[in-house]
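Write out the 3D structure for:
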Amino acid sequence: MVVHYNLREQVLNAIGSRIISGELSPGDVLPKEDTLSEQYGVSRTVIREAVKGLAARGLVESRPKVGTIIRPRSDWQMLDPSVLEWVASSKPDSEFMYNLAEVRLVIEPDVAALAARNANEEEIELITAAYLHLEDADEADEEAWAKADLEFHSRIVDSCHNEFLAYIVRAIRKPLYSRRLINVSLAKMMKPEDVAEPYETAREEVLARHRALLEAIQQHDEEAAERASCLLLQRVMKLMMDDEFSESCD
């Protein structure tokens, strides 16, 4: 039998979003296949394949004589791109976003250092071009700004030459960019009084922090690249929590 995976993905996303949002809670039993089939207007085969997708991501499990139940949040595959997309679409709370920023702080500075070490001339040219796109982007145009920022950081990830780190960073960043939840809002998070010296505007500060990262990579300065990335992420976390972040990049 041919499974229409486009329908399966639609149902998978619909049920996954309901679980992530809390509409379906851990311990709840999913409706039976017939009920879900009627609810979503698809075949039982499509429902079965969608439930398999949920199980593969740790969201549900089948129990004899009970049915398919929602698993505890601690069992969810949080770095799976689909799960992160569902979390992003559910308007995650500040604690989730801060925890995610902490993960980024652990990983991304090392990625930047590796990019400074490993990037070849062609890759540096691509990173530079991506930064210039960011400079040209209007932060009032969230789509354009997000696209330019994603391109800049993606080029850095490509240049680290470590496919495992690249996968982790992309898994975290891409779904959040699609929902405008990181970096694109960094300037918007700043009130005039929040802009750090010696900068005069939020845009100037954001661009300067990205430019520092670019220049470190251009100069193959691993320590400076790591520090620039760390400081950029620290700035995000400080604004998120409206307090000084306790750790240092020194």
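Residues 146 and 184 are 5 Å apart (CA to CA).
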